[in-house]
Amino acid sequence: MTKNVTYKDIGGFSLHYWGRRWKMGVGAIALMFVAVATDIVLPVYVGRSVDALTRVPGDNETAIGAFVVFAVLGFAYPPIRSASMFLWNAFAVNTMYDLVSDAMRKVQRFSSDWHANAFAGATVRKITRGMWAFDVFEDTWFMGLFPAVVMMIGMTGMLAMHVPVIGGYAAFCIVVYCAFSVISSLKILAPRFRYSAAADTKMGAVLADIITGNPTVKAFGAEGREDMVFDAAAVNWRRRSFAAWQTAQATDFARTMMRMVMMVGMFGLAIWMCIHGRASAGDTVLVLTSFFIVGGYMRDVGMHISNLQRSASEMEDVVHFWLREDEVRDSVAAKPLATKDGGIVFDRVTFGYQGQTKPVFSDFSLVINPGEKIALVGPSGSGKSTFVKLVQRLYDVQDGEIRIDGQNIAAVTQESLRQAIALVPQDPVLFHRSLAENIAYGRPGASPDEIRQAAAEAYADDFIGNLPLKYETLVGERGVKLSGGERQRVAIARALLADAPVLILDEATSNLDSISEHYIQKALDNLMRGKTTITVAHRLATIRRADRILVFEHGRIVEQGTHQDLVHNHMSHYKKLYDMQALDLVG
Ligand code: ADP
Predict the structure, then answer these.
(1) 64: phi then psi, degrees, rounded to nearest 5
(2) Is the CB of 587 under 6 A from ligand 1?
(3) What is the spatial distance between Cα 330 and Cα 413, in angstroms, rounded to a whole number?
(4) 111 close to ligand 1 (CB < 6 Angstrom)
(5) With a 6 A CB cut-off, is 360 part of the ligand 1 pocket?
(6) Which residues lie across from 505 on neighbouring strands?
(7) What does CATH list as the number for 7-323?
(8) What does the pLDDT look like over 77-89, one tens digit per residue?
(9) Is 356 in the pocket of ligand 1 (CB under 6 A)?
């Protein structure tokens, strides 16, 4: 999924977000530059004051002068650096805010197919991890690597001006050290951290899957089995992370040794030159002070490069989201759907899922009149669900067109299309919010009276009235605190409020108790009044009352008519289906 993300993409992504807040970023970096510059010149004044003091006779005035400059620079550094960081924090927190909001906005709108194939838990982790990785990424570039590079170049330049031999030696050491840091990070550490991040995602996804599937796990007493499934993922994570961390430690050791070689060499050279009268005591102090300052920056270079590498690989998923163009898109000229009475036309539609050799529908035509009540029946896999998904434009057709009230649904905005369709799914998902909010989802801003009226029409007010907090009762995560029948009635109330001209009902296959069944049927009668209705039917009551039953088989309508028409034809597919148990009527 992330295989197409390149460094160029990560660069484009970063520039996109930095560009939006560039003034703040540039201000912070400029201040950081000034702070580093003060750091670079500090050793010069240390050396100068030592030279003045060791001169015979001593030059106290110069020594004190150099000391004063040293003190001023020393005290100037913290406020400049802090000002830079204040500005930087504002920049970083805003870019992270932009990133996470965009990612959420975009992922939310990805196709249902995408969501069906993605683990919700893993997607959440990818977004939040990407946000934090971007924080590390930008911090590393601008508050880590940039000051370090400026410092290393500035310090070697300053050394070369005072003691050219040692400046040359330091430059050589820094180049070798940086080359080693870059190569070890990119070639040795990066692949290991990438494997470890993949194992981390996988482990999170397995965990989310097991926790979400907990009712099934319990039903089968399969906790032990799931422990093993999770353990396999956790062991893999442990193995890969261990390899990555230990390798990082080993390269860190190598870098520390290289810094020691540099320090010992610089100090040795300074003493040797001093002995041979080619450098002063002040120069030796200057060299050592320089090393201690630049060494601190160098120590972090390896870490910066590892961080850069790690954060770049952890950002791959959000960059991928950023780049991803959804299959179903609004066209540039898309206008809102202008609804009238909800007539639906399938005009020579051909559609197959990606990777399918034979399309589900070929050259499929159908007219559904405004206000007509249609029931879809047929064996499992015959195309009923696909049909309703096409009406909602969850997929684009490959040929032909679908029109609602005369407008091609591919040419209108998806938002307006979906607002024109109210959906009561098989297994309604409720938000972990109050019942009132859940019902008002169909019409944001609905008044308490409207909510109550919708609930009454959906035969939901009785059971809601018996709940401790009534409409303010919080529904458990995914609505598990309500029974299937109750959730359905909440979904019907939602759809009632939405008051859309087209209604899609996907009836629950599971058996409801007869009281629930009775209420739901009455609620649906209220809901369906005056609406064009397509029902994926599993219940006899619905089928009997439909204006027209469409019998699907292999993506074709093999028969259509009212229940009476079809059931009296003894040769019909419908009669055969009907003669089987009511529950076996459809798939
Ligand atoms: P029904 O609702 O009548 O049971 P569907 O519309 O779900 O039938 O399925 C029609 C055909 O399309 C079946 O062969 C099914 O396997 C296939 N199909 C359904 N959904 C997908 C999908 N997301 N990707 C690929 N094939 C699918």
Answers:
(1) -70, -40
(2) yes
(3) 6
(4) no
(5) yes
(6) 424, 535
(7) 1.20.1560.10
(8) 999 999 999 999 9
(9) yes
